[in-house]
Amino acid sequence: MQVKIQAVKRSNARFCSSHGIINRILTQKAAVFGFVIVALIIIIAITASVIAPNDPLKVNMSMRLKGLSSLYWLGTDNLGRCIASRLIWGARMSLIYSMCVLGLMMAIGIPIGLLSGYAGGRIDTFIMRIIDIFLSLPTFLMALAIAGMLEPSVKNMIIAMASVWWAPYARIIRGMAMQTKQQDFMLAAKAAACTHTQIIFRHILRNIAPPIIVMATLEIGSIILAIASFSFIGLGAQPPTPEWGIMLSDSKEFMQTQPQLMVYPGIAIIVTVMAFNLLGEGLKNAIQN
Amino acid sequence: MQYKTNQGVQSENKALEIRSLSLDYIMPDQSIHAVVDLNLVARTGKITALVGESGSGKSTVALAVMGIQDKNAVISNGEIYLAGTDILSMPKKGLRSYISNHAGIIFQDPIDSLNPLLTVGEQLVEAVLIHEKITKKQAFTIALNQLLAVSLPQPEELMKKYPFMLSGGMCQRVMIAIASVFRPALLIADEPTTALDVTVQAQILHQLDSMRKRNGTAILLITHDLGVVAEIADDVCVMKDGYIVESGTVDDIFSNPQHLYTCQLLAAAL
Lengths: 289, 270
Hints:
The structure holds 2 protein chains of 2 kinds.
Chain A: H1 2-16, H2 18-26, H3 29-46, H4 48-51, H5 83-119, H6 121-136, H7 139-149, H8 154-181, H9 184-191, H10 196-232, H11 244-251, H12 260-288
Chain B: E1 14-26, E2 31-43, E3 47-51, H1 58-66, E4 73-82, E5 85-86, H2 95-102, E6 103-106, H3 120-131, H4 136-149, H5 155-159, H6 168-179, E7 186-190, H7 198-215, E8 218-223, H8 226-232, E9 235-240, E10 243-249, H9 250-255, H10 260-269
Parallel strand pairs in B: 3-8, 3-9, 6-7, 7-8
Antiparallel strand pairs in B: 1-2, 1-4, 4-5, 9-10
Helix pairs in contact in B: 3-4, 3-6, 4-6, 6-7
């Protein structure tokens, strides 16, 4: 048992010496695959304005529902807009939105989790009961309800999702904080008169950062999926934004005659979600071994 | 505001004086008297050994002196004079920095006592900066000297290393370096050698001994190893079930033990 704990600690420590973790990710083919695709998607998202062949918003009614061509790589949709350009811009939108949701979730979940785990006692009990309430609600429905009550917009969607999804995060972080709090070096830090802020951020947060990063990576996939779902039903990004969920929604009327309109954004969502999940799993394995 | 002090007869050379300390662990269904009416003195420049079996309350005393006892530990009675001032009568604010200015502590498992994700340098510099408002560069120099003082070779290299790269003995030296940054009046060593092998044990003990000689630090050595006690301690307190059953100089205790439990301990060590 002792040996195992030591091993975990050492692997934890090696996380910060970057070559160790990178080597261990490189040994997993699936993770490398995921990483390459994620990197590609990020590059596409960043350079969207350069590599997109056409303006994703430009309507051209004379060119509607055309097939593949050198000008319109993947053809055009029902309003004559370039599908390829819309997909490329959609990557940027999906990443930006999901980062916002993730950032907001972390901004709520990490401080609450740390406070709960570090303070313990009544504060902990109080926070945990609130988190229990959040966990007892079906998260997606709850976010839908909140987004539905607010005006449909990207900002409100992000707020709705983050305000419901921080709870499991906070709970896991609280557990990790409690575990770290029990370790000997915490006692040493206290004896050296480290302030609470120093202990929480320098000693606890740094020690639980690797698993938080893994959780975040694993979460991005489902966030992207959820954002597309929200946009699909009209509670998230609003047309004509080039967003994968909206593209799906726009194309559903032509499902019978032009099924490829649904296939393209569908594939984009599947590939992105899968890539983030593979990368997250790879990271998880790398810090666990 | 004036706090309670133990000024008076011969108080100058008492780095730590504990008077009739009682401490209970409060559990939901019961309370455990971990320390009962304990009196103890650690004299400046001397090594005071606190010996006893596991669960006798030795470490609880150490934690109480450092003010880092568990939340459910309640001090019901007594005074702890650290460098002349009763820390139990001090307000909570500023208490920790007062204690850490006058006392340092090292623990049983040196590798676990260091944060695995911070380099030795970062942790030492942090300890220095807690005590004094100086620039990072100045703190770095102090930290380097501190590593040299505990006879660690190549301190520049060592500052960049993580605890898992060091041996147990080296980690314990780093802990001593951290605990003694500003020459505290008292150093508590809570079973400092239990997790180390025998040759390293001797080196660490030698280190503590030379620190006491050089800085005049009072050392409270908590151990169950009577061999170690016989080797370096000046005074001995024998603890059992929260009580000090016998105390005196090493020679008195070893040559003429009065209490049955002390006899048993000595017999067990032989």
